[in-house]
Amino acid sequence: MSVQLPNDPARDDVLAGRPALWLNPALKVNGIADPSLPIRASQVKEAEQNWKLLAPLLQICFPELTESKGLIQSKLIEATSLRKAVGYEAAEYGRVFVKADGDLPVAGSIKARGGVYEVFMYAKQMAEKRGILTPGGDITVLASTQARALFAQHTIAVGSTGNLGLSVGIAARALGFRAVVHMSSDAKQWKVERLTRLGVEVVQHKADYTTAVECARIDAEGDPTIYFVDDERSEMLFFGYSAAASELAGQLEAAGVTVDEEHPLFIYLPCGIGGAPGGAAYGLKAIFGDAAHAFFVEPVQSPCALVHMMSGSKELISVYDVGLTNRTEADGMAVARMSAFVADVMKPMLSGIFTVADDDLFRWLWMAETTQSIRLEPSATAGFAGPEFIVKSTQGRAYQEAQGLTGKLAQATHVIWTTGGAFVPEDQFKKFMDRGASLVNVD
Ligand SMILES: Cc1ncc(COP(=O)(O)O)c(C=O)c1O
User: Fold this and answer.
1) Of the residues 234, 251, 276, which one is the last residue of a structural domain?
2) Does 6 map to a domain?
């Protein structure tokens, strides 16, 4: 299929694989309250409650959660020396923070928020159905021998570019489920090995992510003992991620940040299929409304959310349909076709999407480590392009004007969501750093 994208200031750059900022023409005032949306903001609160309920169980399953009493949370770090290295020292950039999901416990990426949530909620439902857990009863019974024996008869399956597989596989094995992860060809070998060591069955496909998901779906359809974590449609994953918003809101408040019409908050979220950035963005819009400006970021050759949302098509458009390759070192974002569910939900509330070149990912990776010891994988660094796009580019200025933000940027806050990295093995990380260093020295 070949698709013509509509006339748009970003179109030529997108099609040529050059970094670009697309502004969403469907963005609405108070878009979170759009009555056509299939979900409600109250579901974010429910997810927060569920996370609290699961905490005592998570603490038993994952000793690294002892200090946080079972909560899976990351730090908000103010970019001090890092903002200087990246070029955001000037006052016009306001305050710049990194939301350090690369250090999230349990799975080492933002995927811990979605994958762990869905697997544990599924286990809870199953235990309730079988009478092991009574409604309102002690959740830690899910770690009992009886519950584990039940879970051992069931399989959790998922398709992944790597990190979702890690999070779902780790969560499933911690409760005693069997787990099968269908990996796309982009998945890094160390992620495959880590899962295999945990007893997860990994099926390595020579095809892209959409195909890996399809294979997992087909396997599960034919077998009632397999539960399929559906990254293309899952509301459970989405709301698991969405609970990150209240965590961030509390951290911003503690850092003395005001968010309102006069003090805009910009959030930059790396996007693959859209679930993780969509959930976090939705949660933030539920808290801050129009004072929060959420942007997705994608690799120049894999801008699946950008091309689909720009197309305005009801049918999903893939990056191949517009002649792009879906080739990138950013494995977590190597996705050719976004989630239709996320596209619908984001339509009235996403401010825009920008794209980044692979070399820049390595440059930022090197800067984050050398300045503030923030360890990232390439996908996780993409948001660093955000402040420059907003403050300096023609499209960014057009956005400021359209939103009444001109003159307010010095009092703005930028949050760069860094989404993975803690689990990257040392030898692999060294290679990333060498590539980053060579690029920085060229400048
Ligand atoms: C490090 C990292 N960042 C961002 C994403 C994007 O998440 P999603 O595919 O839900 O859009 C992924 C996905 O695997 C990832 O691994």
Assistant:
1) 234
2) no
Q: Which of 352, 364, 357 is nearest to 394 (CA)?
A: 352
Residue at 4 is within a domain: no
Q: How far apart (Å, rounded) are the C-alpha atoms in residues 295 and 172?
A: 32
Euclidean distance between CA atoms 365 and 373, whole angstroms: 10
Sequence-distant (≥ 6) Cβ neighbours of residue 203 within 8 angstroms: 180, 181, 182, 183, 215
Residue 186: predicted pLDDT: 84
Residues 18-52: pLDDT tens digits? 999 999 999 999 999 999 999 999 999 999 999 99
Mutate to test the pocket of ligand 1, among 194, 271, 374 (most ligand atoms within 8 A of CB): 271
Tell me: do 283 and 207 sit in the same domain.
Answer: no
Can you tell me which residue has the tokens 């009863």? 137
Strand order across the beta sheet in which 155-160 lies: 201-204, 178-183, 155-160, 226-229
Report the C-alpha gap between 280 and 276 in whole angstroms: 6
Domain end marker among 234, 264, 285: 234
Per-residue pLDDT reduced to its tens digit, 238-283: 999 999 999 999 999 999 999 999 999 999 999 999 999 999 999 9
Residue ID of nearest Cα to ligand 1 atom 3: 419
Q: Are residues 223 and 284 in the same domain?
A: no
Give the integer Cα–Cα distance in Å for 80 and 89: 9
Mutate to test the pocket of ligand 1, among 74, 110, 191 (most ligand atoms within 8 A of CB): 110
Locate 332 and state its tokens. Answer: 């977590």
Please, are residues 27 and 348 in contact by the beta-carbon 8 Å criterion?
A: yes
Q: What distance in angstroms lies between residue 132's CA and the mean position of ligand 1's atoms?
A: 34
For the CA of 275, the nearest atom of ligand 1: 10
Ligand 1 binding residues, C-beta < 6 A? 109-111, 161, 163-164, 270-277, 332-333, 335, 377, 379-380, 419-420
Question: What pLDDT shows up at residue 228?
Answer: 97
